[in-house]
Amino acid sequence: EITEKLEEVLMIWIKQIRRVLVESEQMRREADDIGPSAELEHWKSRMLSFNSLLDEIKSSRVKKIISILQAARSKILKQWKELDGNITIAANEAKDNVRYLYTLDKFFGLLAKASPATMMEHVPSLMNTVCMIYCTSPYYNTSECMTSLLLKITNQMINTCKTYLCEG
Q1: Phi, psi at residue 104, to the nearest 5°?
Q2: Contacts of 157 (CB under 8 A, 6+ apart)
Q3: pTM, rounded to two decimals
Q4: What distance lies between CA 21 and its chain's CA centroid?
Q5: Which of 4, 43, 117, 165 sits most deeply, having the most CB atoms within 10 A of its CB?
């Protein structure tokens, strides 16, 4: 009877975690003119979410329940282990993407505050850094991620030029 109750609890957790994973994979709705700092903020938020989920999974309360179900040879643990692995992958991806996007952070402020002429001085090193991310990141090197990032960089450059023209 205890095993059944614990399996019910674990099934509820599994459904909730699956929902979080599905939501994290859905397309983001963003404004058309959003800048690149939003990309870093997105991954930071995702990293915090998955890290707190991992902390909860590693809590002593959850470990006790898993231990009891292992002793009872519960069949539900296969699903749990798969989800645990998926959460770990998602957390690692978010952490890695934050680490790589932080290398661009210094450029984001420069792009937002520069004049069009001084902005162009930073473009080569910005593009070299983007290239480095594409070549070395195990997660962020997809065409989807790169397209999103380059679009946001372009948006920032356009917004900065518009501001410059309106002030001039």
Answers
A1: -95, -15
A2: 111, 119
A3: 0.86
A4: 11
A5: 43
Read off the pLDDT of residues 90-147 as tens digits, 9 standing for 90 and up: 999 999 999 999 999 999 988 888 899 999 999 999 999 999 999 999 999 999 999 9
- Taking the CA atoms of the chain, what radius of gyration do you get in angstroms? 21
- Counting Cα atoms < 13 Å in the Cβ hemisphere of 45 gives 7
Contact predicate 90/50, CB 8 Å = yes
Longest CA–CA separation in the chain, Å: 76
Enter the tokens of residue 37. 């700092």
- DSSP string spanning 39-84? HHHHHHHHHHHHHHHHHHHTSHHHHHHHHHHHHTT-TTHHHHHHHH
